[in-house]
Amino acid sequence: MTERCPAIDVRGFSYRIGRKEILRDVSLTIGPGQYVSIVGPNGAGKTTLLKCLDGILCGGTGRIEIYGRPLTKYGRKELAQRVSYVPQADGPVPEFSVEQFVLMGRYPYLSPFSSIRREDRLKTHEAMELTGTMEFGPRQLRTLSGGERQKVYVAAALAQGADVLLLDEPTTFLDYRHQAEIRGLLAQLNRDSGVTIVAVMHDLNVAMLESHQVLALREGRVVYDGPPGALMRAETLQRIYDTPFLLVDHPEAAMAAILPRPALDRPA
Q1: 215 falls within a domain
Q2: N vs C: which end of the chain shows fewer Cβ within 10 Å?
């Protein structure tokens, strides 16, 4: 295995739940250190794809390789040293303190009966410092806001020490300040630490500004895979989302941005 291999390489992958095909003949390549956004309408298969890449969902047909090695050849702990998954912040909240939860990210390096090592605590504290969550250490996760909790989830993924970070809608449900903090944190990790970021996004403007590459899914199929600027065309977006888009030139970036259209029945 060589680090010159793609971080993720998927060829002809399909995934079915019962009789329903969720992903259909998906192929994509993500290089090490890339920032990739996955976009598309609800029900397109975005979250399913993330969970298949991390082995949370098993099975399917076709091929998924992580750093040149078939996903099926990885043990659970070995895979966790290469790929980590950050769920949405609105899911069930574990009954742990923040520090306990982040420390659990070190599980790929521990045996069932081993004690916590000094290195594990150092890595935990480094991740908490980087994400600005040290002050939350003794608090219970359930006492945090959605934005604070999302930063803790990222901290746990960083403590895991993986090369690839998979995130499912990392800024959805967050206020503007926390959205900006999470965006800045992910951009910093990608730029300064070379972490490969693969994030499911609903905000197309953010996806275009943050990403090196954008993958668009519709009904389980890849309908766009390429640079962000080329996606931001009204006809392309309408084909993906079945709705018209209003685009303007972004004042600070060399690409288009989406403006909301006024409602047809606005109050007087």
Answers
A1: yes
A2: C
